Amino acid sequence: MRVGAVIVTFNNKSMLRSLLADLYAQTRKPDDIIVIDNASSDGTRDMVALEFPSARHVMLEKNTGSAGGFREGIRLAIEENDLVWLLDDDVSVDREALAFLLAARETLINDMSM
Q1: Residues 6+ apart with CB under 8 A from 113
Q2: pTM above 0.85, yes or no
């Protein structure tokens, strides 16, 4: 089961850096990390390229807000992934977060099939 993590950001390079570090430290890492950049001017693009080169950075021409950013991120993520994990750039996640979410999903699926 492939999981794509989608992060929408705008001029929040330092918090994005922290979140990306959290994602790369997951015990069950996302298969794809997509950063949707709402036309940041704070060096976000360079930071992602230098520090997290396996993440996909997508620069939008203009700031489309969270909804527009997530729309684009979901569109890209579902092309290659089975599940999509949506994240704002100002959150932090425990290193077991994705593993926990996937285990909870499996439990729900099993409970529904009974």
Answers
A1: none
A2: yes
